[in-house]
Amino acid sequence: MSIRYFYDVAVSYQSETEKSVGKIVDYLLIEGWKIFFAPTKQDEMFSEKLHVKLYDIYRNKSLLKVLFVTEKYLKSEWTQLEMSVAMESTKNEERRLLIVNFLNWGALPEKLNQYVYVDGNKYREHEIAGIISKRLRELVGSENFDERKGQESGDCINKSVIIQNNDGVIAFGDANFGDMHINGYGKGV
Fold first, then answer.
1. Given phi > 0 = left and psi -120 to 50 = alpha, else beta, which region is 168?
2. DSSP 8-state symbol, 181
3. What is the DSSP letter of 179?
4. CB neighbour list of residue 52: distance below 8 Å, 6 or more residues apart
5. pLDDT tens string 48-74
6. Which of 66, 81, 122, 158 is most buried (most C-beta within 10 Å)?
7. What is the pLDDT of residues 9-54, one digit of tens each?
8. Is 64 exposed, middle or buried (0-12, 13-18, 19+ CB in 10 A)?
9. What is the distance of C-alpha 99 from the center of its chain?
10. Which of 129, 61, 131, 48 is nearest to 89 (CA)?
């Protein structure tokens, strides 16, 4: 029997990467993943002991933990808590921890240098989202994921259209591009 997590992925980041991380989260949400991304979960965190709530999310309620490491990230009290809990909870299952390194000097600090990481300065948001999504599919198994997505979103999963241009813009389902509208059946209107 497999463990079921409330979130497929919990992202840990510092404010200077919030815009970029938000784009990555958007790509993952389009794919059907359940994400803990603090700006979208503020209503759940009111009247909570924040450190207890974050500990529970990063320790018990998320399958994959993704750390977006920057210089400020390494100095923040809250991200240090998230990083410590994420590392502790995955010490026997390192595939459940993914690090995206935005440090300009490249090398991670000693406590993180044992991990393979994604170079956040080299890849675009949609590419990082693709790496995260691939890791999630490996962790949950593609058959289980396809079955789960079908249950959560009904028939629309099979009717979505995917469009990607050279700028990396991706649209799923209903989308508008200027005067052109693409609906879930892939027809321009």
1. left
2. E
3. T
4. none
5. 566 677 788 878 889 999 999 999 999
6. 66
7. 999 999 899 999 999 999 999 999 999 987 665 556 555 566 677 7
8. buried
9. 11
10. 61
